[in-house]
Every structure is written in structure tokens, then in C-alpha cells.
């Protein structure tokens, strides 16, 4: 899944846009932005991802460091804190990109407001002001859903790879907690990919979706495939195993 998902996301964006533009998409409740999956999951996608990854990274990194017999309690805790900083990096990527999307939409858009006799036309500088004036803002709206859902799904898959090197007693309470978190993260990833498909089928123009997913892939690649290989970084989930080994290989 880790090897194929980046290409699969690009294919979904391409195929979904083709079906949407060809009018071949059936009318379902998922077309409505107020559907429960969109309101309670996608709108707070980073919150869900952060809430589940935080305990998972902390527990698995600490246990992995302890099981190697190379780290004491203090150094294991410090390593866990270092790995948790990946969530701070992810939060920064999410915030900067979403703010950039808002800025671009405001910069490229204009407000369409129904004209009323005798009223002086008002100029609106932002999408928020336009909506407050009951108008429709027409700008280049890079798909924040395509960006965030692709980035979250890829980040989760990178972090759960730590289980390949984790050794714990299968009957221990720690293993039960880790398994519950792992299943929850897998379930969340399925939701993110499914809602990515829905976004590709029902919302945005092709260029907006393509740019969104490309930025999401760039955020993942720039961190897990480039920066996290450097000494001064949060590091990879399996710090003692090089990226070229079979545990990180994309040619297994």
C-alpha cells in the first residue's frame, strides 16, 4: 500500500475528474457537503490524524528504543519526543498550505452579488466578506481536501511501518493498546482515501484537484523521503534501519 498509494491518488484524481466532466457520476448523498463523513471527519481531518498518531508514535517509538537494548529510559523518552516532533512538522505543513490556499483564492477571485435597484455596488476583498454579503466568490480554489487527505493518508502509512520492527509480548496491555491504535489508524486511512475519491468525483475542477494532491505528495516526499533522512530532523519511524533496506524498500 505504501508503495502504490501515491500513484493511486494521482490516478483517482485524474479518473474522478474525467468522470465528473463527462457527467458520468451518479447523484448520491456524498455530493452534499453536509454529509456526515465530510462534516465529522474530513472537516477536522488533521485533528483525527493527530489525535491517533500522537499516542501511537509515543508508545511504539519508546518501546522500539527500549527493545533494541541500546537506549535507557531517558534516551528512549527523548527519542520518542524527537519522533513526536514529526507531528509538529505536519501541523506546520497543514497550516502553511491551507493559509496559502486561502490567500491564492482571495487574490484570484471576485465577488458576485445579486444587484438591487438603487444600491451602490460594493467591493469585497475576501471570500469571507463576500459570503457575509450573501455573494458568491469566484476564485482559484485549490482543493484543500485533496491536499490534506492525501498528506494524512501517506503520513499514517509511514508511521505505522514501525510495527515491522516492534517486538512486544502479544498478550501485554501495551500490545493491545498499540493494536487498537493501529486498527483505528487503518480505518481512518480508508476513510481518507474514500473521501478523496468522493472529492475527485463531485467537487472542484481538475486543475484544482491536481494541484492539491501534488502539494500533498510534495509535503510527504519532502519530509519522509528527504528531510527525515537528515541528522537534524524528527527522523524516520525505524531510526536504526536505513531507507534502502527492505523495510523501507518500494521494490519488495
TrEMBL record:
The chain crosses the membrane at residues 44-65, 86-104, 176-203, 210-228. It is found in: Endoplasmic reticulum membrane. This is FITM2 protein. It comes from the Eukaryota. InterPro entries: FIT (IPR019388), FITM1/2 (IPR046401). GO terms for biological process: lipid droplet organization; lipid storage; phospholipid biosynthetic process. GO terms for cellular component: endoplasmic reticulum membrane. It holds the Pfam family FIT. It is a multi-pass membrane protein. GO terms for molecular function: coenzyme A diphosphatase activity. Keywords: Endoplasmic reticulum, Hydrolase, Lipid metabolism, Membrane, Transmembrane, Transmembrane helix. The keyword Hydrolase applies. The lineage of its organism: Eukaryota, Metazoa, Chordata, Craniata, Vertebrata. HAMAP family: FITM2. The keyword Repeat does not apply. The gene is Fitm2. Its main location: endoplasmic reticulum.
Amino acid at each position: 500500500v505504501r508503495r502504490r498509494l501515491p500513484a493511486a491518488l494521482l490516478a483517482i484524481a485524474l479518473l474522478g475528474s474525467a468522470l465528473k466532466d463527462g457527467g458520468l457520476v451518479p447523484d448520491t448523498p456524498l455530493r452534499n457537503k453536509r454529509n456526515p463523513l465530510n462534516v465529522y471527519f474530513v472537516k477536522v481531518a488533521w485533528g483525527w490524524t493527530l489525535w491517533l498518531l500522537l499516542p501511537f508514535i509515543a508508545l511504539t517509538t519508546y518501546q522500539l528504543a527500549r527493545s533494541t537494548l541500546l537506549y535507557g529510559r531517558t534516551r528512549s523518552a527523548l527519542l520518542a519526543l524527537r519522533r513526536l516532533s514529526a507531528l509538529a512538522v505536519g501541523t506546520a505543513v497543514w497550516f502553511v498550505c491551507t493559509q496559502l490556499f486561502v490567500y491564492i483564492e482571495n487574490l484570484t477571485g471576485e465577488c458576485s452579488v445579486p444587484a438591487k435597484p438603487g444600491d451602490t455596488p460594493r467591493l469585497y476583498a475576501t471570500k469571507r466578506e463576500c459570503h457575509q454579503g450573501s455573494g458568491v466568490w469566484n476564485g482559484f480554489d485549490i482543493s484543500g481536501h485533496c491536499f490534506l487527505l492525501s498528506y494524512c493518508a501517506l503520513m499514517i502509512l509511514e508511521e505505522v511501518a514501525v510495527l515491522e520492527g516492534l517486538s512486544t509480548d502479544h498478550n501485554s496491555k501495551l500490545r493491545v493498546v498499540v493494536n487498537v491504535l493501529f486498527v483505528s489508524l487503518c480505518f481512518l486511512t480508508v476513510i481518507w482515501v474514500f473521501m478523496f475519491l468522493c472529492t475527485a468525483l463531485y467537487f472542484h475542477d481538475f486543475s484544482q484537484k491536481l494541484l492539491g494532491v501534488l502539494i500533498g505528495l510534495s509535503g510527504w516526499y519532502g519530509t519522509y523521503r528527504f528531510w527525515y533522512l537528515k541528522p537534524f530532523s524528527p527522523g524516520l519511524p525505524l531510526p536504526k534501519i536505513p531507507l534502502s533496506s527492505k523495510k523501507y524498500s518500494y521494490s519488495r
